[in-house]
């Protein structure tokens, strides 16, 4: 018999693999459905790809790949015999077969016993070989089967990614000195202490200074103040502000000149009042860590467009899925949508009066519902928050899902179109009263919750007084009081003008006070409203405001329709604010930047002419030998490559107002920009014609020209070469935005068509059909449930439990979903 099995498997030996480190073995769930070893047909695991397939889908994989050998896993669940000792260990046959097998169930495991069964199945004849069968199988097959049976779960997160292994612990981490200077870092509103930069900010872990990073050639970054601070103080470690999460943060060592690990980052951050990293020790929600995902998915698949896209096209999506369906977004969405809507894995809503009857039916094996583990693993891959097992913000995950749907719907139907709408933003300079209108794409309206508008304000004041007294006297706090805020007050707060921080008025060409108001340029088919219930405490921990808002079932927003520029209004000039570069001293005269002679010599040692090296370092703004080397490679064939560097006049870098009479202060007709400035921009990778256009539009100011390029991206890259020669000698009338069109093309989404982004505009009248509620004190803990209105009745979805909701708590919701009413 052994010889017979060996001969039988010989043709398939090249296709049988032993799982290697990094291979994921899907032995607990089908990649196309929620079938598992506990399902009636069991689960088939491919012995080559280690993907799992239910009985309905394994034939598809065989036809597509020709892979013939599968391991069939089957778990038989039986109710314990009457009189079995309570708490007895379940009886198992082949107890090691399903080592580390993760299955979801909502029944008590102590009331059941399991019998596990495994066998090899050879397609297409379905020849079966029971396991274990060590004596009769070839050694390679035995090793492969044992490795598959004992492989860890496919959903376990890898301890360390390969790129993380290369980062070393800083030698300063253990002995880092931190000053007791009383510095406490706020959870928001940061900016560089030496300039106005609000991006690429770094927190020095010794003295708490918040400073900007270095400037990059693409216009991002900062003015290098964090590095300057290190040179002055020798404080070595800094953490990038926007990377701080409960999992850690990005740390850089100026002294070691590389990214490093800081094992004590939690303590170092808490020194400045940042206790977010301690949250893992304070909160726990491990058994419900996916409820934020479940509630969002339930609502999405209650919308016909999502049902039609993924469930309606199920067979087509499955038939054209890639070889690894677990990594395909459309496949996993179709799988989950079918699991939710088919009724195969979930019970219909139960009437309240039948719950007791159902409970009396006793210890029957209940359907376990669906667990979106495979989709979660896919959509959270690489995301610092969603890839963790902590509770997350449902609103942030909704935005993440909409982005993924957008990204994976290119060239096909896009169900997220139903959420998309345009917002008109009107910004007014308070001093000149002139305005600017812009449009932006959005998918959700965030409504503020003004506590001052609460109808029970006196009760809230009394509670706060009692709370402070109890805190001072070290007594138990009083029972909390919920602030009751009218929905009309939230809507009013949304429509009121808000101050624009650091507003730069193009009419004054200086900073001034500005206000912004927002209106709907279009109304979406499905409107999403988020109530701003969460705020950050001084310890960086998100805290929830105890609010109750009388959200209406029917909503009319027609009065918030945008009106555009009015005849009585005057627009702000289309001028750009000056940007700050590291070399910009903002004095009355601009000094010629020094040349990094060390970088020059490093390039010269490679064999390049000395003068060419000096030009390369100069034209790349002293950004290091690597950037200068790229400039050299791009300009080696030029006739003046090795000629001495001729520095431009100070007028080139003069940021003052132009005396030109050309529109917007541009270069007068007939005057070409200096070749040095063109070379700097082209060395950064920008087309020559576009660089000339930018310089002419900004009076040859290099800093403003760089900003102009990013705000006015090229519309037709294929025409750049053809326009280059003409642009050298002739002014480009299209270098300036038309006054009647300054808020259209430049502010729309990148995927817009010729007429702008796709929106399903219509009347602004809506009806509430779903809402997501949060129970708990923070987005990082607690539990999410959702209510969906089906056939006129409200149904609550709480993890795997679904039932009718007689009195849905609509006033306590966090995210509300409305669908548009027909015009009739």
UniProtKB/TrEMBL annotation:
Keyword Metal-binding: yes
Annotated EC: 3.4.19.12
Catalytic residue list: 291, 783
Superkingdom assignment: Eukaryota
Enzyme class: hydrolase
Metal-binding listed as a keyword: yes
Record's protein name: Ubiquitin carboxyl-terminal hydrolase
Organism: Gasterosteus aculeatus aculeatus (three-spined stickleback)
